[in-house]
Amino acid sequence: MPLTPLIQQARRLLRDEHFGEILVGTIFSLGGKVGAVVFGLGLNFFVARVYGADSLGVLAIIISVTTIASLFSLGGTDMAIMKLVPEHFTRYSARSAWRVFRKLLGLVLAHSAVVVGVLWFAAGPLAERVFDKPYLADLLRLCAVFVAFYAVERICIEALRPLKAIRLYSVAQFLHLAVNLGLLAAITTWGDDPYNPVYAYFATSGLLALVMLGVVATLFMGRVEPGQQNGPAPYRGIYDLSLPMLMTTSMAVVIANTDVVMLGAMRTETEVGIYQIAVKVGMLASFVLQAINAMAAPKFSELYHSGKHDELIVVTQQSTKLIFWATTPIILGIVLTGPWLLGIFGEEYVAGYGALVFLAMGQFINAISGSVGYYLSMTGAHKAFRNIITLGAVINIVLNWLLIPRWGLEGAAFASMIGLGFWNLASVVYIRMKYGFLILYLPGLRRVLG
């Protein structure tokens, strides 16, 4: 039987030296993302059913605060590692790359010491004045303690990508959620404290920080050989790269978490819990993009620093096309079956359907735009991307402030859609103007634009 055109196309792409590596890596990473979706939904289902929307809302607030605080612990190192480690592997040696990782880890620990102190003393005012929920103060102090562990876990996981430890990275995508769910199930058998989901979340971060640090150190040392040279890696140079990336990552997290934080400040825990489920269901559409980005970012850096710019453009456009065709059916499925999907978690969560539609529309814009952020960050345009995404974050915050008091869940979701859409499309325009090619993909669009 002759091969179908689809199979022939797949084989041709797999034979491509660079995109084939991304495609194979994406398959493994996608498996990890599917696992993350399964365990993530399982965790939210467990909390929603056993502990209720109020506990789910508290957990969502704590996770958002931890995520935002960890940005300052990481200081942009989680993005910088994807550029610096491939660069040192390519130009110098494994020893040089290992040295860079140790410096980045040292910066994370130094930053974390400051963040822990600030968050500990700010816990009371945050709980009382920002969230208007004084009972959150003790949980926020616990959050301060575990921010450092969470940051170490994150940078170790990101190090697996430039190390090309594809299988390990795919497992790491869902390991936190799987361990978290397991610990919560175990804790629940001993009691039904409404804060058990938060305690399990913190315990998971502490455990996995130590495990992942040991794994990454072993991988690096397995490649280091006597006599390998070290390339220059001054702290000033690292900061010149990481600080703009900190701003970029910060604004991305602000866009992703502003809606939850501002809902928590302006509305009830129940509404936050319902919105959290809508976000989780809406994110089903993004895991393909995240899987491709996981492998594309270090490849972009590798090709750029090797001077293979034409190949880089081809790989980038192929990645966007793959994202579009893999993501669009999922987005349509979410919109069409949204009430049923939300109803799985309980009848009260169906109220989040309007928000879910806006969130899905934002993910569609994200999908057709491709890996714009990683392309700009890995090719020396990280400062331009910082400026674009900062403006997107400002737009998102202003819209949340204006819309949440009147429209609640739908207002938060609409603000999220506009913020996400703005920085994606603005980045598409910037890439077209600076690099001379269109990264955005819609069938037939390039023939129209030329």
Low-confidence stretches: none
Q: Whole-Å distance between the termini?
A: 38 Å
For the largest beta-sheet, the strand count, sense and barrel status come to:
none
String of helices and strands: HHHHHHHHHHHHHHHH
So what's the overall shape? Answer: globular
Number of strands: 0
The helix tally amounts to 16
- Mean pLDDT equals 83
Find the structural class using helix and strand composition.
Answer: mainly alpha
Domains counted in the coordinates: how many?
Answer: 1
β-strand percent reads under 5%
State Rg: 22 Å
User: What percent of residues adopt helix (DSSP H or I)?
Assistant: over 70%
Which helices and strands, and how do they pair?
Blueprint: H1 5-15, H2 17-51, H3 53-74, H4 77-91, H5 94-130, H6 137-159, H7 166-190, H8 196-221, H9 235-266, H10 269-282, H11 287-305, H12 309-343, H13 353-369, H14 372-378, H15 382-435, H16 445-449
Helix pairs in contact: 2-3, 2-7, 2-10, 2-11, 2-12, 3-5, 3-6, 3-9, 3-10, 4-5, 4-6, 4-9, 4-11, 5-6, 6-8, 7-8, 9-15, 10-12, 10-13, 11-12, 12-13, 13-15, 14-15
